[in-house]
Amino acid sequence: MTQPTPPARNPHATPSGGFLAEIKDAVTTRAALLVLGVLALQLAFITSYIGAFHHPEPSRIPIAVAAPVAPVAERTAQQLGALRGEPLDTRVAKDEAEALRQVRERDVDGALIVDPAGTTDRLLVASGAGASLSQALEQIVGLAEKAQGRTLRITDVAPADAGDARGLSSFYLVVGWCVGGYLCAAILAISAGARPGNMHRAIIRLGTLLVYSLAAGLLGAVIAGPVLGALPGSLPALWGLGTLVVFAVGATTLAFQGLAGVVGIGLAILLVVVFGNPSAGGAYPYPLLPPFWRAIGPALPPGAGTYAARSVAYFKGNGAAGPMLVLAAWAVAGAAVTLACSVVRRGRPGAAVGSGLPDDAPSVPRFTAGAPEGPDTAR
Predict the structure, then answer these.
(1) Average pLDDT for 256-282
(2) How far is CA 97 from each of CA 64, 100, 101, 124, rounded to the nearest angstrom?
(3) Which of 41, 118, 290, 327 has the maximal Cβ count within 10 Å?
(4) pLDDT on residue 346
(5) pLDDT over 90 for what percent of the chain?
(6) If you average pLDDT over every residue of the chain, what do you get?
(7) Does the pLDDT at position 358 exceed 60?
(8) Which residues on neighbouring strands pair with residue 62, listed in sequence order?
(9) Residues 128, 158: contact at Cβ < 8 Å?
(10) What's the CA gap between 109 and 63, in Å, rounded?
(11) Contacts 24+ apart (CB under 8 A), 15-23
(12) How many Å apart are CA 144 and CA 151, to the nearest integer?
């Protein structure tokens, strides 16, 4: 007996559960939470950048004061330190040479050389540390001098290079290095699961990141220096700094991924992009930032990298030791956490990013033992 042919199914028909059931089937709880996380990250980005940049106000800018007669220097330093709002943090230098040394070694951001015999004083600034900072010093000290019936002559002892508009090239170079670091780590995760499956895989990822860091550090330094002529300074020193910045950010991203899976990429962006970039002292150096960003900037990779890059470019490396130690700490901590996570999760590599499986789901073997490879057995 011939069986009747069932009617063809309309591929566009709505399931029996209706449109709401279709939404529930298409959008998982995990996907919804990730989208909400992206929204929170976006709002944090907007808040952080506008919060840091919308109202720059000088606060306790370090400045040395020198004069041929010590009482004159002390009195002037006291007057400048008592300005409303405390825009300056003054200290007395024994003479002009000592004041100049402090500026070039980045102990202070400027120096006022007082001439008791005349009515014109000199202000030593260093625009290589940031044009907005030197301009703030010129304005603050200039107004104070004018109130005393004196004039001011500006001397830039560490000027920004002609190709380095407003001293921002160091900042953007470091931002580029940071982006490369966390993107490289993210790609390593996407290729084979967010969490490394064992110690060997973790070492391979860190080794790959190191090779990438060496290449990215060198190429970035070459582009900023010889190619574009934006940054002076030692090319090997910038190469070493770039390698450290890229590896520190990449290792930190790998560590976050080891701890939180795919969410770790978002945590790395939160740390480096949302909090790190606006507090790095790029457009506005630390003394011009609000207290929160001024406090966290030196401890994060973008801030440490920017300060060190300016030190290498314009101050012969003076003042770079502290920021380099900060970057080294991030690099070591990131590598250590990455290795530790691989030991704790040994044998549980997790699903690859984009597979649609939860991070804690075991990896699906490529072949099923005893069965031929086919659509249902091969991945």
Answers:
(1) 94
(2) 11, 5, 6, 11
(3) 327
(4) 63
(5) 74
(6) 88
(7) no
(8) 89
(9) yes
(10) 6
(11) none
(12) 10
Those residues whose C-beta lies under 8 Å from the C-beta of residue 79, and which sit 6 or more positions away, are 144, 148
Inter-CA distances, 64 with 11, 55, 93, 320, Å: 78, 26, 6, 20
Predicted local confidence at residue 201, as pLDDT: 87
88-97, 126-135, 160-169, 172-181, range with the lowest pLDDT: 160-169
Residue with tokens 């490289």, as numbered in its chain? 184
Asked whether the beta carbons of 125 and 110 are under 8 A apart, the reply is yes
How many residues in the chain?
Answer: 379
State how far the Cα of 318 lies from the Cα of 329, in Å rounded to an integer. Answer: 20
CA atoms within 13 A on the CB side of 156: 15
**Residue 254 and residue 275: Cα distance in Å, rounded?**
18
User: What region, left, alpha or beta, does residue 215 occupy, with left being phi > 0 and alpha being psi -120 to 50 degrees?
Assistant: alpha
β-strands 110-113, 61-66: how paired?
parallel
Neighbouring C-beta atoms of residue 304, cutoff 10 Å:
30
- Count CB-CB contacts under 10 A for residue 51: 14
Cβ(97)–Cβ(80) under 8 Å? no
Under DSSP, the state recorded for 379 is: -
Residue 258 corresponds to which tokens in the numbers above? 């080891």
Pick the residue with more confidence: 31 or 95? 95
Distance CA 25, CA 312 (A): 56
Q: How far apart are CA 49 and CA 40, in angstroms?
A: 14
Residue 292's identity, in one-letter code, is: F
CA atoms within 13 A on the CB side of 138: 14
Contact (Cβ atoms closer than 8 angstroms) between residue 242 and residue 180: no
CA 291/CA 217 separation, integer angstroms: 31
Determine the Cα–Cα distance for residues 364 and 356; give it in Å rounded to an integer.
Answer: 12
DSSP for 207-270, please give it: HHHHHHHHHHHHHHHHIIIIIT----S-HHHHHHHHHHHHHHHHHHHHHHHHHHTTHHHHHHHI
Tell me the two tokens of residue 234: 């030692």
Q: What is the mean pLDDT of residues 256-268?
A: 92
Q: Identity (one letter) of the amino acid at 32?
A: A
